[in-house]
Design the sequence.
């Protein structure tokens, strides 16, 4: 089972790299495996992952029987798994579109409506639904950012993903396949919104 989960991370990395959504060694990907998490090690290029680049951590983000170093951002992955037991995979990417859009929106929420592609997000049946994606201010203090995420979740649980301003996107799903679908759907929606900005519609 663990081998299949690791392979799902590797394959996601190759696909995401082919889209240009995770340049250099940015981003990190994970899957839940029972009471622990399999996650990419720090400083690894996501298009060139192998099983040797994946480690197991506990829900405190600490390595389990591994000398590899997890990214500090692993704490956001483990926070999500603790907040919602149905989350099985988390993808953190750094696309140009999500990064720029997160800086254009000065409010703490991006609202999307009127797009047929909204139906790529689980639970949505119509373009008339209102999609709300939280935007958190960036910080190098990952424990603080994780606490901000948890506090906001208690007020209103998030769905599908959230943006970190000037940084990128975190999205998730019940398994890797759903997380990948949510990522692709959100990137399309973000690209549409950014084009609307370019046209002056959202100014």
Sequence:
């Amino acid at each position: 089972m663990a081998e299949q989960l690791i392979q799902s991370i590797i394959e996601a990395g190759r696909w995401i790299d082919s889209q240009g959504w995770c340049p250099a060694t940015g981003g990190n990907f994970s899957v839940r495996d029972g009471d622990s998490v399999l996650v990419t090690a720090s400083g690894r290029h996501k298009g060139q992952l192998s099983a040797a680049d994946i480690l197991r951590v506990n829900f405190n983000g600490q390595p389990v029987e591994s000398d590899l170093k997890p990214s500090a951002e692993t704490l956001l992955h483990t926070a999500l798994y603790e907040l919602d037991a149905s989350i099985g995979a988390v993808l953190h990417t750094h696309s140009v579109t999500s990064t720029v859009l997160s800086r254009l929106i000065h409010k703490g929420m991006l609202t999307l409506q009127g797009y047929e592609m909204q139906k790529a997000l689980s639970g949505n049946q119509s373009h008339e639904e209102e999609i709300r994606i939280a935007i958190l201010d960036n910080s190098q203090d990952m424990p603080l950012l994780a606490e901000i995420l948890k506090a906001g979740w208690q007020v209103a649980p998030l769905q599908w993903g959230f943006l970190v301003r000037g940084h990128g996107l975190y999205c998730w799903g019940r398994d890797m396949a759903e997380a990948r679908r949510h990522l692709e759907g959100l990137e399309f929606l973000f690209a549409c919104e950014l084009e609307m900005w370019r046209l002056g519609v959202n100014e």
Observations:
- The longest helix spans residues 176-198.
- The mean pLDDT is 94.
- The radius of gyration is 16 Å.
